[in-house]
Description:
alpha+beta, 6-stranded antiparallel beta sheet, 6 strands
Amino acid sequence: MLDVEAIQKILPHRYPFLLVDRIVELEPERRVVGLKNVSVNEPFFTGHFPGRPVMPGVLIVEALAQTAGILMGEASGLIPMFMGIDKARFRSPVTPGDQLRLEVEVLRRRRNICRVAGRAFVGDNLVAEAEMMAALVPADGAT
Length: 143
C-alpha cells in the first residue's frame, strides 16, 4: 500500500534510521502492518555481534514504533514522540536475511496521546512484542 517514498512523507526518519520498508495493510485509526527487510549491510551488524549478527532488540521496538507512527500520522500530519514502552519481550533473534512483519494495533487514543500494541514476526514466529505510548505533535515543533 505504501512504499518507502510514501513512508518518508509521513515519518521524519531517514537512513540509516528509517526501519520500515513497506506498509502492506492499513486500517486508519485501527491497525497497520509493515515490513522491514533485514540486510547484512545494516550498519549495526558490524558491532552487534561480530561473527554472529543479531538485530538489536531496541531497533526491533523502534521499527514497531515507526510502523505505529505511520498509522498515527498518516491522516493527521502529526508525528509521534515516544512516551513509553511497556511489556517488551524478545523471543527469538532476528538475523540478516529475515523479513520482519510489524503488526501494530491501537489500544487507546485520547486527544493526541495514543497507546498501541506491536508484534514483530519472522514468518509465523513471534520474535518481539511491546506496548508503546506516544504523543502526536506538529511536525514543525509548534504546540
